[in-house]
């Protein structure tokens, strides 16, 4: 029956893209879907029963948002199948250690998040949800038609039954373990010759360099960036080498959140979720997303605040979609740099978003090929760049640009020290702008 669900979801996803004539029609339909979800999950989730209390289901937007920590603390009573957190973690950790990702709890897929925010989480996906996810992602991300032949090469730190559910007669799916050496990946790719290449930007960069050297011979019809922030520097290099636009899928433990259209614009998947916005600036550009996913019933996501900083696109996309468009995924909240205020150092902190740091460094010189900026403490930045042997010649320019960007925010100028550039290992996510301490550690 899962194949029937997959095909039905594929067709419905294609059909729904033309269902609504106005934004208000879309939002009214979303409300109906949320109410349908609540009727299904409230009797089966003690956590949400208690959270709603005397609140009526149609007042769901009045619920205080939850986060990953609260979800993990209440995992056993939040999921609707009564699966205990300890059992789920045991299955997930065994899969990590053995690199065999087929075990399930009954028919439920168990996945483990990478824990970029310092708090590892688990997710549960039932068989019908898994089939619906496969149908949605094929409809939104697969180039051409479903009945065409496709070979998908998928690079991630861990495989999952969720991903292999896209394997069908004319769709070949091959998992590439990020923990394996790049030489092995190049050999396998040349043999598999994928039509679709899906990988984190750090791996796409390595593959682009291999193609530039003539070692990698593949020419996929579509390249999709996942799992890490796609930095403009990496995006430009990968696009230049492969001679095509780089698409993105924005997905995490909390759901399948957004995907790029044919024009390269990230659109929120508002046919499966509601994304409320908790704005972070007066211009109402940057926001934390608060998610309610009406496609998930095993591990419900209702008013879940995600720790990502998103930037809303203000101009309409040429594709004409009514779905919210994102300018960029800027980074995580815990990568916002914190400095003492220039005039009130004892009482005020100044926040500098990752995009300001990124733009300051990239505007320094076109010779910069790769970089990393770490804030070690409020008084010290550690910067490393790769620039074809010109690194030391650029140090003072980089220092000046960063100091200028920080000063414009009214912050005290930190010390800036330079170190040699080193790439991250395959099992670790690349973060080009990263804060190395928490605010509680300095207050």
Structural account:
It is globular, with a radius of gyration of 22 Å. The relative contact order is 0.10. It starts with a helix and ends in an 8-residue tail after the last strand. The chain has helices at 2-16, 23-41, 46-52, 68-73, 75-78, 85-98, 127-141, 161-164, 182-192, 201-212, 232-242, 354-362, 391-407, and strands at residues 109-112, 122-125, 150-156, 171-177, 196-199, 222-225, 246-252, 255-260, 266-268, 273-279, 286-293, 301-305, 308-312, 325-332, 337-340, 349-352, 370-377, 380-386, 415-418, 433-435. It has 443 residues and is an alpha/beta fold. The strands form four sheets. Strands 3, 4, 5, 6, 7, 8, 9, 10, 11, 12, 13 and 14 form a twelve-stranded mixed beta sheet that branches. A four-stranded mixed beta sheet has the order 19-18-17-20, covered by helices on one side. Strands 1-2 form a two-stranded antiparallel ribbon. It is built from 13 helices and 20 strands. It has two domains: 2-333, ANL, N-terminal domain (Rossmann fold, 3-Layer(aba) Sandwich), CATH 3.40.50.12780; 336-441, GMP Synthetase, Chain A, domain 3, CATH 3.30.300.
């Amino acid at each position: 029956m899962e194949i029937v669900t997959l095909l039905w979801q594929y067709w419905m996803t294609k059909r729904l893209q033309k269902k609504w004539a106005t934004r208000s029609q879309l939002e009214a339909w979303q409300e109906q879907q949320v109410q349908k979800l609540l009727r299904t999950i409230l009797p089966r989730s003690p956590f949400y029963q208690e959270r709603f209390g005397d609140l009526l289901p149609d007042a769901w937007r009045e619920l205080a948002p939850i986060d990953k920590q609260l979800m993990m603390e209440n995992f056993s009573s939040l999921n609707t199948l009564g699966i205990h957190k300890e059992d789920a973690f045991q299955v997930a950790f065994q899969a990590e250690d053995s690199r065999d990702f087929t075990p399930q709890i009954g028919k439920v897929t168990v996945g483990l998040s990478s824990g970029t925010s310092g708090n590892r989480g688990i997710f549960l996906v039932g068989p019908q949800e898994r089939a619906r996810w496969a149908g949605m992602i094929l409809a939104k991300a697969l180039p051409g038609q479903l009945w065409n032949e496709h070979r998908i090469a998928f690079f991630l730190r861990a495989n999952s039954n969720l991903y292999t559910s896209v394997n069908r007669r004319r769709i070949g799916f091959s998992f590439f373990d990020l923990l394996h050496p790049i030489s092995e990946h190049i050999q396998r790719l040349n043999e598999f010759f994928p039509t679709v290449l899906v990988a984190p930007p750090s791996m796409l960069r390595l593959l682009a360099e291999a193609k530039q050297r003539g070692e990698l011979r593949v020419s996929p019809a579509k390249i999709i960036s996942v799992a890490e922030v796609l930095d403009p520097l990496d995006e430009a290099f990968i696009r230049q080498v492969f001679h095509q636009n780089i698409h993105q899928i924005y997905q995490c433990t909390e759901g399948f959140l957004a995907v790029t259209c044919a024009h390269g614009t990230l659109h929120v998947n508002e046919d499966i979720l509601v994304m409320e916005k908790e704005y972070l600036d007066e211009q109402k550009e940057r926001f934390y997303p608060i998610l309610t996913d009406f496609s998930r019933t095993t591990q419900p996501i209702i008013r879940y605040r995600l720790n990502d900083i998103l930037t809303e696109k203000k101009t309409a996309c040429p594709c004409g979609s009514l779905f919210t468009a994102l300018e960029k995924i800027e980074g995580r909240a815990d990568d916002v740099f914190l400095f003492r205020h220039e005039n009130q150092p004892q009482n005020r902190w100044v926040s500098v978003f990752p995009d300001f740091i990124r733009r300051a460094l990239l505007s320094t010189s076109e010779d910069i090929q790769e970089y990393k900026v770490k804030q070690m403490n409020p008084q010290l930045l550690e910067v490393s760049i790769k620039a074809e042997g010109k690194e030391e010649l650029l140090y003072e320019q980089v220092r000046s640009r960063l100091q200028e960007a920080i000063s414009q925010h009214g912050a005290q100028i930190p010390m800036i020290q330079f170190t040699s550039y080193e790439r991250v290992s395959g099992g670790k996510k690349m973060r080009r702008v990263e804060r190395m301490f928490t605010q509680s550690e300095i207050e």
